Structures are given as C-alpha cells and as structure tokens.
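Ticket #4471: structure output looks truncated?

Reporter: J.K.
Steps to reproduce: submitted the chain below (422 residues) through the standard prediction queue, then opened the result file.
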Amino acid sequence: MFTSFSTALSALSATSTAIDVVGNNLANMNTPGFKTSEVDFRDLVTQSLGAGLGETQVGFGTGLPLTVRQFTQGAIQTSSGVMDAAIQGDGFFVVNDAAGNTQYTRAGNFEVDKNGNLMTDSGQYVQGWTTTDPTTGAVDTNGPIGNIVVPVGSLQAPTPTTQMTVDLNLNSAATADATSATSVPLTVYDSLGNSHVLTMNFEKTGANQWSYNVTIPGEDVSGGTAGTPFPIPGASGTLTFDANGNLTDPAAGSPINISVSGFNDGASDMKVAWNPYTSAGAARITQFAQPSASSASSQNGSPAAELVHVGLADGGGILAQYSNGNQVVVGQVALASIRNPGTLLAAGNNAFQLSALTANPSIGLPGTGGRGQISGGSIEASTVDIATEFTNLITYQRAYEANGKVVTTADTLSQDTINLIR
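Returned output as attached by the reporter:
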C-alpha cells in the first residue's frame, strides 16, 4: 500500500512534464519551422509478490517520460519576404551562431544585415556558396560552405559587344541600283558601356549579288564628322546567293569581322564577329521575292548596370537583378541531410545542434542526396496541431487528477491503519 504513494507521485511528476511539453508546443504554434514534440511514457521495474513465479506483479510507477520531436513536413506558406525560403522534404538549413558553432534549422525567415550577410532573424549566419567560376560565372558548389554575402548596391561592369547577328530578307525582285538600298541599325556597347549604333547597309549590285558596308555615327570616332555616317574600314563586301535565294558567300563558318577603333569616349577598340549563319549552319540572310526587311537582331554586349533587386529563388539560388535586365545567380544556399533527426538537441532560436547519437550530416545542394527542395518566397509553418494538443492537455489533466486521488486515498488508508494500532 505504501508504494502507492511513490507510484502516484511518479505519475504526477511525469504528467506534469507532459503538460509542460504540450504547453511548449502550443506556445510555438506560430513559430516558423517548429516541430512538435510528443511524450512517450514508460513504466518502472515491477516487484513480484508471493511465492509464485510472478503471478502477482506490482509496478513502481512511471519513469521520467521521453520527448520525441516529430520531423514531419509543415505546411508551405507564401511569404512576402524576398529572402524567405522553405524546405519541401527532408533536410536542414546550415547556420553558424555568433560563436561560430554550426547549427541546423528548418526556419527560413532570412534577412540581410548591413554588411550583406544572409542571416536568420535571430542572428545566425546562413551557410552556402558564393564563389563563382571565373570562366563560366556560375556559382562553384564544389568547395567548402561559408557565410553567404549578398551584393548590396553594387554595379555590374559593362560587357563590350563581341558578337552580333541580323536576320533579314533582301528582295530578289529589286532593281540593281540605288532604289534597292536598305539598312538595318543595331545598337552595340563599347568597353566603357557607352552605346553606338552600327548601321548595316545593303544594295543590290547584280543578279543574286548584294554589296554591304557598316557605318558608325561620325561623332563617335576620331576622323568622323558629326551628323555624317562614318564607314568602318574593312567592314564591307559582297553577299552572293544561289538560284534558290540561299546565301552561299560568305560560306558557313566564316563570320564577318568588324573592327572599330579610335572611340572619342576613350573606350578600347571594338572587335565584333557578325555571323550570317546560325549555330546549325542555316543562313540568317535570304534573298526571296519579298520586301527587304529584318526580322530579328542580337548582340551580346550590355551597359554598366545598378543592382536593383536581390531575392532567394526556388532551388536556393541567390538571384541578383540589375537595371539592364540581367539576372545573375550570386550565391547558393546549402542543405544538410541528417539520417536520424530525432536525436538532435534543441538549441533555441529555432535551431538544433548535434548530439552524441546524431549521424554525421551530409551537406550538399537541394534536391540531391535525399535532400528536399527549397521554395523561395515561402515559409514552413509549425507542425503543431491545436486540436491534438488540446486533446492531450485534457487527457493529462485527467491523469493528473486521477493520480492525485490515488495519493489522497493512500493517505486515508494509512491513517486507518495507524488508528488500528491505537
């Protein structure tokens, strides 16, 4: 009978702990990336009464309950934060606290500090890659991870034009004189980012033959006259077509080289390859019985541009958008895969740290090695279900009251036993 005191008291202690867990779950029902904890009760060793082989067994109550964090998928909610991210599937964001300790989190409500560091709202540094390949310009994800530094207020250097194309038809029915003349202007950029208009002039000179030359405004180059087109030296020649209107000369694989020197703005000399064929070898210039007109043109240069927007895109890439319309991936968020996340220890601020039982994290790109995908402009909601928690709260309350009744009943019986002695 007297063991019923300790048995009931163990239940009271365990149930009180369970209520604490429920309270913590409810307190974090709006915490991004929070994972609910469940309580697992366990009994203590039992004692056998009597001479039989365990016919009568009485336990000593319940031990300290275990809390198990359930790493189930939370609902993905659209967010207004341009740097917010949510993980769809398994994995954790890797973060470093102020002391440099590595931690892991599912909360993706990120922001940028004054130095451009990508951080959680609680001040942890988000880890990933920002080193770019000097040849391709792509983010190099083969090296070690580090703090992600987002460009703030930076300028993108101009890209001088080195290649251009023009798609056009020259009228085969035109007369071989000045009345057949047609021109196509195309804006290109020098090494300083200043724009210049190259004009390609065409005139029919005979059956299936057209002459061409390229000019630039005279005020743009030394030796030119303002208001008068300046013929670019060497940028002239003849186009030859066959009886079917297909370009035959120059042949495929022989781009027309245009060199411009002596820019008045002090820019470097420009060398542009004008390719009259596609990469597949199809001619961009035809001669059919239709009015002479261009249908498309392109060039690979761009002026200097200001950074106007930085955001976290789907897949975890940090995307920088410039005023010239260019979009460049300047960083990549890393994800960690942990085989047994239930062994992680809560470190506060929505983060977890490794325990002695945790498997080594595998860090890599989202969508690889069992890691989930990253959704930009989203937040993973808490997995707390208010209905379940209220049900558990009522259940634990009833259990607490019942075990309290055991204590009062055992106390009454103890008093009755003492009175028998008297």
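Triage note (M.O.): checked the attachment and the full token line is present. Residues 3-71+382-421 form one domain.
Status: closed, working as intended.
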